[in-house]
Amino acid sequence: MSEITAEFLAKKYHMLSVGEVRALKKMAERVPEGGTIVNIGAGSGTSALAFLEARPDCRMFTIDKRKGKLIAELSAISGTSCQWQENYRQIKGESVEVAKGWNTDWRFAGTGLIDLLFIDDDHSPDYLAEEIEAWEDHVRDGGMIMFHDYGTVHPPHAAVKAVVDAWMEKRGLRKILRERFTVAVPIPAWGRYLEQNDLDYYVQMLAEGKPFGFSRFSDGEWLALLGHIGQKNSNGCTFTLEVQDALFQVLENYHPYEHTVTRIAREKLGAEIGAFIEEYGIATEWTLGNVFEDAMKEGRLWPLINQLRSKRVMYVGPAYLKQIHEKFFRLVGYVEIPPQDAIKERDKIVANIIDMMAETDAEVIGFSGGHHAKVFIDEVWRLVTDQVTLIDFGSVWDGMLGVKSRKYIRQGAYDFEALFEKNIRGRPLDGESPPLLECANGLQPISFEKTSQPTLEDKRASPRPAQRGQAGLGGPLE
Ligand SMILES: C[S@@+](CC[C@H](N)C(=O)[O-])C[C@H]1O[C@@H](n2cnc3c(N)ncnc32)[C@H](O)[C@@H]1O
């Protein structure tokens, strides 16, 4: 019986720590039976042996540009029970080149997508960035990329963290494990390539007077859609069957404005969302929806606020957001919605919005109203299509108004006073604010005439996803 194990090699060669060997093995356990593991950088064979020990059922490739290293790897692990592992293949080649040939090279032909990729070879920033780009498409959705030397302070490895962080940021990914210098980054089962438009894109649309719609589905909306009925979101709204139904209709109707999903929803619920979209054949195209929140957190909202200051903007939200009128830009009208269960009054609220829009000649309507906002936006879009810009701002103003509605606000990581100054560029509104035309829900007469479009009842008749349990989805919602 051999004494040579991955932990033994770790202690002998110091390429990885014993903790890192265990981390590799732990992550390898997530690979589906008979899956594919690719280890770039053979070195002393420590990482290869860790994978072979953990998952002898998997197909494993190690890649190294130096033959000598591959020989060293083989000799290091010879004598172990993995020596003649049938599924273990060594590839001599340069990482980016091997990645480029992944689908065509006879050595991997038919291998398909990778379940776990471990990158531990050239650590220079440019090469690593190129390497990630070359390999990431070969990793399956729901797979994993692990990196070594993340956070090492010594050059040239010191750049690994910055490159990996920039990639995660761009892709909206996050790491799930960090053990010394090893990090594991899961690739969500759905929506890996969601792109986020820049703030400039919306600023430009406003500047050019081109109406657009922007709706934001965060974890609360998805939990409701996925059938976690009875749970509450962060503002205390309960996910009812009515909410689920209404949101489902929004997706099923798919009006062609921008539907976005937030990072947190994708991170927490990516796999479930993917399965849901597939199961119900939802054709909606998605982008990433953190653009306003990101800009706010970085004090970059000014160009947007500047545009909004030049437009006739009305707002739909709970009472406390009327402060927007004096603090950020002027509003021509405000439709107040109840902080909870606004869905129950949806027809009346939508009618009030349309009414006020006509009365105020609004060019932009801002919305903040949790899952109700998506439903109102969709209804308004259906009724007025391209006449007005509809923006779901979510909780973007809350921190700057001192309202602790979200975890990131409560945690105190941001100086919202300073952010307020930056976001409005320290420029208060000049002149007197005109009186705000207000419409508290239920208090205003409604002059709105129903159209001959299908009624909500008609639309609700189509099947919706089943109610599911709440298991495994604790944690605060954003
Ligand atoms: C730090 S060692 C890998 C250590 C190994 N993971 C272990 O556990 O022992 C880095 C390896 O990457 C290889 N390498 C460097 N640049 C490479 C590239 N561009 N393509 C392929 N292999 C490369 C080197 O030859 C070296 O064997």
Spatial order of the strands in the main sheet?
A: 10-9-8-14-13-11-12-15
Count of extended strands? 15
State the domain count.
2
What's the shape? Answer: elongated
Radius of gyration: 27 Å
Q: Averaged pLDDT, please?
A: 87
Residue share in helix: 25-40%
Uncertain segments:
445-478
List each distinct ligand once: S-adenosylmethionine
Q: Helical region count?
A: 19
Describe this structure in words.
The protein is α/β, with parallel strands linked by helices. The chain folds into 2 domains: 6-186, 3-Layer(aba) Sandwich (Rossmann fold); 199-460, no CATH class. 38% of the residues lie in helices and 15% in strands. It contains 19 helices and 15 strands. It has helices spanning 6-13, 18-28, 46-54, 67-77, 95-100, 125-136, 160-171, 199-207, 219-225, 241-253, 263-279, 291-297, 302-309, 324-327, 346-360, 370-384, 407-410, 416-423, 456-460, and strands at residues 36-40, 59-64, 88-92, 114-119, 139-147, 177-179, 182-186, 213-217, 258-261, 286-288, 313-317, 331-336, 364-367, 389-392, 437-440. Strands 10-9-8-14-13-11-12-15 form an 8-stranded parallel sheet. A 7-stranded mixed sheet has the order 3-2-1-4-5-7-6, sandwiched between helices. Helix 4 (67-77) links the parallel strand 2 (59-64) and strand 3. Helix 2 (18-28) crosses helix 3 and helix 10 runs parallel beside helix 16 (370-384). The protein is elongated. The N and C termini lie far apart (53 Å). Mean pLDDT is 87; it is low at 445-478. It binds S-adenosylmethionine. Residues 15-16, 40-47, 63-66, 69, 94-95, 120-122 line the site of S-adenosylmethionine.
